[in-house]
Write a structure and sequence with these properties.
Number of strands: 10
Low-confidence stretches: none
Structural class: alpha+beta
Mean pLDDT: 85
Distance between the termini: 23 Å
Radius of gyration: 18 Å
Number of helices: 9
Strand content: 15-25%
Order of helices and strands: HHHHEEHEEHEEHEEHEEH
Helix content: 40-55%
Shape: globular
């Protein structure tokens, strides 16, 4: 999982910046809006419960959450035309890339995403061309100096998490999507601060990038996709050699 972990660390650093810009909350609001379309009661709608848990994990205000639920359930016409799209394709060096999109204008979003892929040396692919290479998992990112690893391991596994690992200055907790709420509640009750909480896509296998220019190209493309307003999340199966990561971080 080294490649995923390296990208998670990069995302972890970006999360603080996104939060300041309001992007993180905007993305979480869209997730709640989409989830609330099939029911506004989180106790009866697991997907909505997961979206709310993710929002609470990063201290999204209750008013924002409730407003998003109203929009999604139809109490407000705002956001009624939003739709979910999964774009799949390839980045440099044959890496697999998945973009989770929420948009109110597919005709605007599609060419913009295609352009980002092409400018990054990649291309969009057909449905399920790479999605089968990833497993959906609940992911929690926690700063390593906030809790001892053994304590986190015990807490997480008791809540039915699948794995706890340390990657640099953060811990990553993985669980099945259906156990996301249980793990989130256990961490919250224990007072463990969560940097990031999401339903992620973990690559089954990875493509190692050993060329500096190729590494720059894939990271640049991932950054541009992350920064697009309609992109909820981006996942890839690349891993970058440690020596290259050090050069990229200089």
């Amino acid at each position: 999982m080294s490649g995923h972990s390296k990208w998670a660390n990069i995302k972890h650093k970006k999360a603080a910046v996104d939060a300041k810009k309001g992007k993180l909350w905007s993305r979480l609001s869209k997730a709640i809006i989409i989830a609330a379309r099939t029911g506004s009661d989180p106790s009866m709608n697991p997907r909505l419960r997961l979206a709310i848990d993710a929002a609470k994990a990063v201290s999204m205000p209750r008013d924002n959450i409730e407003r998003a639920i109203r929009r999604g359930s139809g109490e407000s016409s705002d956001g009624a035309s939003m739709e979910e799209i999964l774009y799949e394709g390839y980045g440099s060096s044959g890496t697999a890339v998945i973009c989770e999109i929420v948009t109110d204008n597919r005709n605007r979003t599609a060419p913009e995403i295609r352009k980002i892929f092409e400018s990054g040396g990649g291309k969009l692919g057909a449905t399920n061309c790479v999605a089968w290479m990833f497993d959906r998992k609940g992911l929690f990112v926690i700063e390593a100096d906030k809790i001892e690893e053994d304590a986190l391991m015990e807490l997480a596994l008791e809540a039915n998490a699948e794995d706890v690992s340390r990657n640099g200055d953060v811990f990553e907790v993985l669980c099945l999507p259906e156990d996301f709420s249980v793990v989130a509640e256990a961490l919250e009750k224990a007072g463990v601060p969560i940097v990031e909480a999401e339903i992620s896509r973990i690559p089954q296998n990875q493509v190692e990038i050993t060329d500096l220019e190729a590494a720059k190209k894939i990271l640049r493309m991932m950054d541009r996709l992350e920064e697009h307003d309609d992109v909820q999340a981006v996942f890839s199966n690349y891993t970058i050699a440690d020596a290259l990561m050090e050069q990229l971080e200089e």
